[in-house]
Amino acid sequence: MTSPITTTRQGDVLILTSDNPPVNALGAAVRQGLQAGIEEAKSDDSIKAVVIICAGKTFFAGADITEFGKAMQEPSLPVLVDQIEALDKPVIAAVHGTALGGGCEVALASHYRIAVPSAKFGLPEVKLGILPGAGGTQRMPRVAGVEAALEMATKGDPISAEQAKAAGLVDRLATEGNLLADAVAFAQEVIGKPVSRSSERPVTVDPAVFDAFRKANGKRFRGLEAPAAIIDLIEQTAGKPYAEGVQAERMGFMKLIMGTQSAALRHIFFAERKATKIDGIAEDVQLRDIKRVGVIGAGTMGGGISMNFLSAGVPVTIVEMAQEALDRGTATIRKNYEATAAKGRMTAEQVEGAMGLLKPTLNFDDLAECDLIIEAVYESMDVKKDVFGRLDKIARPGAILASNTSYLNIDEIAAATSRPQDVLGLHFFSPANVMKLLEIVRGAKTADDVLATAMALSKKIKKVAVIAGVCYGFIGNRMLMPRQVEANKMLLEGATPEQIDKVHVAFGMPMGPFQMADLAGVDIGWHRDPNRIENIRDALAAEGRWGQKKSAGFYDYDEKRTPSNSPRVTELIAEWREKLNVPQHEVTEEEIVVRTLYTMVNEGALILAEGMAQRASDVDVVWVYGYGWPPYRGGPMFWADTEGLKKIVDGLDKYGFEVAPLLREKAEKGEKFNK
Ligand code: TC6
User: Fold this and answer.
1) Which of its termini does the chain have fewer beta carbons within 10 Å around, N or C?
2) Residues 619 and 607: beta-carbon distance below 8 Å
3) Which residues form the domain of 515?
4) Pocket, ligand 1, Cβ cutoff 6 A
5) Which residue numbers delimit the 3-hydroxyacyl-CoA dehydrogenase NAD binding domain (predicted)?
6) pTM above the 0.80 mark?
């Protein structure tokens, strides 16, 4: 087998080029090739310097994650980076694309780093539940300082080449497109100079930074093992020699990689990518060209949806029925962009650029110029059918027609047109400009190229997309239903909203079912028929307790929106218990877990059995990216696997639920949802 590493010479300089698509992951063959190159440089006196560079779209994007959990082939990455650094001839890392994880560690072990301005550096291991395991926790503090190292290693977000240069991580910026020549020129300049090894540099640190950092990020790191382990490790090794530090790093790495959190986070990494593969569709299907998007409705949802495309440089025609609503919607989009700019995440020109792509109109016929039209109107089948009937008359042939419905039957909506093959669901989550998840709903007649185009577009607008089948609530909202039903029943049986929410927050969710109701609006759905008061929620809505927006819902809120237990809610629950004559019992934490979490897994199993999700990992992606399921628990189906499906079935049986046949079958066979 040919090595992914090619060696070439330019005068005294040995060039090691890695070509291991798609991302130059540092798999065994790459490590062996790099090691051979370093050996060659060591033994050949005519070689005076080495340049390490990558072909393709990026510098090494890290260790090969698919090798994790398998027997390690020599040399390991920690051994290799030490060999690179130990060479007594200058080694220059020439970086383009992303130098991530192990890739960043190869760069840190090299004696010099040169990068094109578009390059990025990062230590994203923490996002996989591990710590930088090839000297990163030791070399980064020595090169860029302890604070920068803490920031990069615990948050995992990459920094630009410019920021890396300011931090001392990059020695020189190359000209875009001229990286190799600039790197060779750099190598020639430093030939003969004593090499500077980052592991030999001292670490200077104020011990107070660690606690300050923990305090500042406590909320962000809640429940996560890796960030805490990284801070502890850097703190404990900061004053110690490199050899000692790197040994502690190795132990910390091994501990984390064997843990459930890392397994869950790696599962989500691959699940997110697997979700883009659509069953039964050829990968090379010809995509439709989307040059302009139409959005019907300039409310919160329509505005948020529009922003996705504007931000990605795609022009949007947004339609409303009244001038005032159109103006309000347009103003909100501008306000949101300006808020982003105020935080320094957008320039004033970018704001104007995005706004310049927006065409607000009251004329429905203007949608005729669009290649994809998404309706975000009132959630009613009659209204949607009417909109699609009108679209059918004016949309150009081949335009994709999408509904943003959260629950309704896409096939019924598609039947209102003469072109059901062009219709699908694009279910965005609120706020649509922020939330990562997109459910792409595949109708019975949706054409393959329509689905594939939607999937490709989701990547362009930086969404994580999952294919769902046509069923009430699709994947996410359908699984939310049993949780909601059970949470409400438990209120009547003796639990409090706090008690139920607390279990969910302790599990790692950002909030529990009642906190979520207060945030989204207790009045959702109630306005349709305000005289019908059938449950506690309707009663709260009827009293004007609509949630956070009214400072009162299931909780009372002060002016800072801090929730507190509401005596009125306690009273109201008691009234309903009496009225419906519900027997009381002490609701335990175990009962809450079974009735609100196991029931979700049960629903997930039904969804899988019915083919409404393509695979269990897609269900996990929906919950992690759309509903705040803690990524370190890998999504409901992965979590069920780690709990053991027998335990889930036993819990459901104990509380009298009808267990999904697929779940029971898997439990009996000792199988898992995710293989
Ligand atoms: C580490 O380094 C630890 C070191 C210590 C060791 C002791 N390995 O994301 P994309 C695949 S931990 C294997 O769609 P993009 C990916 O699955 C690692 N495979 O591309 C996909 O495969 P598919 C630290 C990998 O252009 C394909 O490449 N590094 C790896 O949107 C394309 O990926 C990271 O955590 C990998 N490391 O984004 C970086 N990376 O086509 C992880 C990707 O079969 N990677 N693949 O589905 C990324 O963040 C992004 O892939 C990217 C490129 C920004 C590099």
Assistant:
1) N
2) yes
3) 495-580
4) 22-23, 25, 58, 61-66, 77-78, 98, 100-102, 124-125, 128, 133-134, 273
5) 293-468
6) yes
